[in-house]
Amino acid sequence: MQMAQRTITVMRGLLKRYGSSKIKMALWDQEFSGTHWDFIDDTAGDCVYAHLEKHLNKGSILDLGCGPGNTANELAASAYTSYVGVDISEAALAKARKRTEENGRSAKNSFACSDFLSYRPSQQFDVILFRESMYHVPLGKVKPILDHFSKHLKDEGAFVVRMSISDGKGGNKQRLQAMVDIIETGFNVLEKSQYGESGPEVIVFRPKRPQR
Ligand SMILES: C[S@@+](CC[C@H](N)C(=O)[O-])C[C@H]1O[C@@H](n2cnc3c(N)ncnc32)[C@H](O)[C@@H]1O
Questions:
Q1: Probe ligand 1: pick from 87, 114, 118, 160, max atoms within 8 Å of CB?
Q2: Mean pLDDT of all residues in the chain?
């Protein structure tokens, strides 16, 4: 049973990363239509918020893989002027939109259903966030997708990535460590904070821009 369950989990993980947008959408919608992700519905006080507030400068944020709207609704309303959340799951976005309405944030928050690998924003942002969503980017696409979204960061803007890379045994998961290496090699890292011994890491970075 455990072996069969593990195989299914691994297969789903691979499809969520390498499947077509349609397949990814179906898998995520199935999970968000049930109770699978209910446990992340309240993340008030999460470690990422202080980093966001610092780099937002009361400006704009693009949240890639926004899920059920935690950042859109838990980030202090005074910390930003506009928020765009992108997610591949309409079911997750339905929750995000409902919470936004209930919180009276409809004028500031907007949402788009898209695969972030092909999403083309129509503006530049102060912060572009991957919160617990970078896992679903194929390793070979990490640099290209960050280069693409770099064009949508303001000059003083920053990427914020929150992910748990620890393997829980004192080391780091290889694929996730490789993502961190890509970020550290290709970008200017401004902050790298580890929360707890095997807790999440928050990395803040911006593109290496040519000296003026
Ligand atoms: C673990 S949840 C994190 C949700 C939210 N960022 C948070 O921290 O509360 C990962 C989210 O990424 C979204 N996602 C995964 N792959 C995606 C893709 N290729 N394009 C857009 N969203 C994606 C999922 O639908 C899901 O909502």
A1: 87
A2: 96
